[in-house]
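Q: I have two molecules that I believe assemble together. Could you output structure tokens for the complex as a whole instead of separate predictions?
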Amino acid sequence: MAITHYLKPYVAWVTGWWRNNHQASSVWRLTRLYTGLLMLVVGILLWVLYQLSVGQLGRSQTLQLNQLQQQQQVLAEELSQADFIRQFEQQAEQSRQFIMAYSDNHTTYGRLATIPKRVTACPQIARFPVYNYNEIRLFSGCVQSLNNGRLLVATDDEALFDLREQFIQASVAALALALALGLITGWFFSAQVLRRVNSINEIALKVEAGELSARVPLSKRNDEFDHMATHINKMLLQVEHSFDAITGVTDAIAHDLRTPLGRLRLRLEQAQLDAKKQHVTSEQLSSMLAELDGILATFTAMLELTRLEQQQQKANFKQLDLANIAEDAIELIQPLAQQRNQVLNVEIKQACKLLGDATLLFRAIYNLLENASKYAGEQSQIKLTVNATGFSLSDNGPGIPESETDKVFQRLYRLESSRNSPGYGLGLPLVRAIIRLHEGEVKLQSNQPGLTVLVNFGE
Amino acid sequence: MKLPIKFSKKLCVAAAVALTSTAAIADDDALSALALKKAGFSLEQAIEKVNTTYPGHITELELDDYKGQAVYEVDVINLAQEQQHKLKLSLSDGEMLKNESSKLTILGVSKIDDDERLALEQVAESELSLQQTIAMLNDKYQAQVLEFELENEKGITFYKFKLLGQQGKQRVIVDVVTGETIPVLKH
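A: Yes, here they are, computed for all two components at once.
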């Protein structure tokens, strides 16, 4: 056919394009899937519509045609030839919708001048041309052989065929529209979704290349992609912090352990000189040992801290009252506070029941009390308050500048003002690790003057 | 639809006078039939002459008058040479009175449409001969072919004959491809 000839290059182009795009990005895969589904739905709808309208008309027409033919067949068998022809002529004359013709070997009765040779035998229906009012019309019908001749029943169903043609044209147009619409909207939506996925991919690549500060951009829609981006950004922030922390710790170790190690070296040097004079005193040796113990304690604390931070199982956890632990800690710190003429106040507002490790919690509270006592200075006031959800510890010492409140929790971090006092900057990180293990949070606030440590175990 | 052949009033009057004995039917077709009956050069002869002189296919033949005498007006199209001929042959002696030839395409635009072209192609392929068909019609219907036309409708190519016989005027449609008569619907 002429149409297929014209279509050939286009079909070849489309199939070629399809093949080349077969392994293209998921934009096209999604688009094709979406378009395919859309076309399928439209196709099914059209098919159902066709069957209910044009198809139904065609079927009922065929049925009537066959009934008419069967009726005449029965009449031909039962009536005499003359009676049959009489009734036939009458019926053929009356019937407007159906055209009937009967031909014995000499004459053709009914509406057609002749019975065309090429019409198929009933019930197979074929189309054949008939000349009517100066034009050719195509009728559908069939021929049935009777005892004494041939019977033709037919109907002018050009309108039905036109309807069918129009329906098919409309369907093709609808499908083409669905295809275009599907491709455009599918591509648009897929591209939009994948653009966001790709933006996350880009950030991942940047981070992989070492740019830890890269963050996934957020849209204003607050959808799943934004949630994902928020989580990824949080994760990246954590990673960045850990990275900084590692660098910080390394620097801090190098910096802070160099001082005691240097001191130890000096003392050993002195001891070497003294050893030549053969009078190394036991005080010299014990101060060196104390120095070494300090260094070892630092490492032990660091290891413990790491263990605490990584610890997830809470096998040793028991139901306990924080107030009891606080009282024990106060008791232990009392002599130290008295030495410094400090006033210690304890206020138990409510019992604080929680699941936890008593030893660890005791260490945390004692550490905080020790810090308060150490840094608040002589004659300061220290107050420990226990309530239902945690405790707070305030003093009226020099406090900590606002900018430093986060940093003091970093390992080996020490305030400039406390550089000269003993300690390795592991106390507060240890406290925080313990509190976090108990699913609590620790915060530092200014007491104006002084410092308040707020510990909250939540609900 | 073609209008009936227009005879000049003079000829009409002349024929009407000649027809007074059998004046039952006095329309144009009857006049044409009479003219044919009296013709010295028959319709079959006219077809024969045109076919030999102008190779191609006759797309239309009708009776007309030209400068006071009855003529066969024949249209011939030659697809191979892309030529169209409009001929007028005298009814009395078959003399070629007029011969208008023209190209089928003017400035790349074809004078005939796709349907007509298809019709001509089918005629060329068909084994049906025009002369045999006319002879068959004359015999079968006992009638005289007055005019015919080649047409194509809905993909079907056919000759539309107008016959006049004992039972009166009749249209007979013959499918060019199958050679079959296409039935005419009675009303």
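A: One point stands out. Residues 143 and 444 of chain A are 104 Å apart (CA to CA).
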